[in-house]
Amino acid sequence: MLDKAIYFDIETTGLDRYRDEIVMLTFLYNGEISYFVKAHSLSVYDIRKIFNNSSITVSFNGKSFDIPFVEGKLNISLREKNNVDLLHMAKSCKFKGGLKKIEKDLNINRLLPELEGKHFPGLWADYFKNKDEILYDIMRCYAVEDIIHLPKILCCFYNLKVSQLEKPFQT
């Protein structure tokens, strides 16, 4: 069932879902990465089509951040789907911190470890002003790194949860 899950993440101009905008939405589905960028390819029709391909979404902090943004800005309902929020799984497994900290704790390495979500609004503003293709590539790389490790993190937490069960399925 989880092999048909859609792993996704958004990048925004800020944290306020009423005032700020989604500038990049990245998906991992069936081993394929897709991303939609505002002013390039952010098509609500295409995004809706991807979300409709699965009844399960997986994200990090999606229930509090990504899903409300997507629903509010793109008018796409995700609440009826099964939403796995890895932030909540992390907390239940006694992990603390954000995605980058948890990746580090799980020995998952990034290509751009110094780049964080808080840098994205400034990168976007610089890119939008100067049309610097290097910044565009850095933003895409960062966004892909935010989703590419989610399946591995999900497996780690699942295995940790299963290992904590005392004699599961004993009759």
Describe the structure.
This protein has 171 residues and is an alpha/beta fold. It contains 7 helices and 5 strands. The chain has helices at 44-52, 62-74, 86-92, 99-105, 120-130, 133-148, 150-164, and strands spanning 6-12, 22-29, 32-37, 56-59, 82-85. Strands 3-2-1-4-5 form a 5-stranded mixed beta sheet, with helices on both faces. α5 packs antiparallel against α6 (133-148). It is globular.
Strand content: 15-25%
Order of SSEs: EEEHEHEHHHHH
- Alpha-beta content class: alpha/beta
Separation of termini?
26 Å
Net shape: globular
Helix content: 40-55%
Treating each run of at least 4 consecutive H or I residues as one helix, how many helices? 7
Strand order of the largest sheet: 3-2-1-4-5
Instruction: Note the main sheet.
Output: 5 strands, mixed
**Strand tally, please?**
5
Poorly predicted regions: none
| C-alpha-based Rg, rounded | 17 Å
Estimate the mean pLDDT confidence: 87
List the helices and strands and how they pair.
Blueprint: E1 6-12, E2 22-29, E3 32-37, H1 44-52, E4 56-59, H2 62-74, E5 82-85, H3 86-92, H4 99-105, H5 120-130, H6 133-148, H7 150-164
Parallel strand pairs: 1-4, 4-5
Antiparallel strand pairs: 1-2, 2-3
Helix pairs in contact: 5-6
